[in-house]
Amino acid sequence: MPLYKTEALVLRTYKLAEADRIVVFLTRDRGKKRGVANGARRPRSRFAAALEPLTRVGVGYYEREQRDLVRLSYAETLLSPLAATRPDALAYVEYFAELLDEWAPEGDPSERLYRLGATALDALAAGVPTGALVRYFEYWLLRLQGVYPPHLACRACGSLLDAGAGAPAWLRPGADAFFCEGCAGDPGDRGGVRLSAQALRALAVWSRTSPVALDGVPPQVERELEAVHRTLLARHLEKELRSARVLRDLRR
Ligand SMILES: [Zn+2]
Q1: Is the N or C terminus of the chain more exposed, i.e. has fewer CB atoms within 10 Å?
Q2: Does pTM top 0.70 for this prediction?
Q3: Which residue has the higher pLDDT, 78 or 66?
């Protein structure tokens, strides 16, 4: 049985039997895996604190033929979310890990998804503004899955959405596209979600920025993007994540 060594992000764990844990982790090169960490719940376990959600670890594991569960040999912490410097950062850690778990297909490698998670952790450790980071993370997650509507031009008329005119765009109910003010329909029964020109500019910047270099955005922009992302996430996940509810309750 060969030992695979790689880098991974811990997504979640479950208790197993007396003293063990099942660990769900996203490897850099081999997709999402589930593995048994023997004795992980014993004091002084060799897995120690390496199994907290979103910890970046060096792991070694054995794959067994005809079995879905791998067996973890070791997990060493490379970067812990406890390195996050902002007091509210830890509230986001579980949300990021849960989103990655929801969207990462089992055993189907996506190095870009892994990199998104790993750089989000770097950004938390670097102390970037968390309000912008969480919206950035959702934006890129949805983009990598191919479900973020193009935000540079109106779907109907093709006019640039942020041509400096300062006009907003609309995500119409049920539509997977943004529309300019003129094409968004009658203002009276427009419905849908509105993105201001400022929010559209933030997206344009984020499409070419590393999360570690993120600047904060005004609270109004955070709220607009949150509304759009919640709509898109709910549409594609068909449920609301537990950690997203917790985050919202925390802010109340
Ligand atoms: Zn238009």
Answers
A1: C
A2: yes
A3: 78
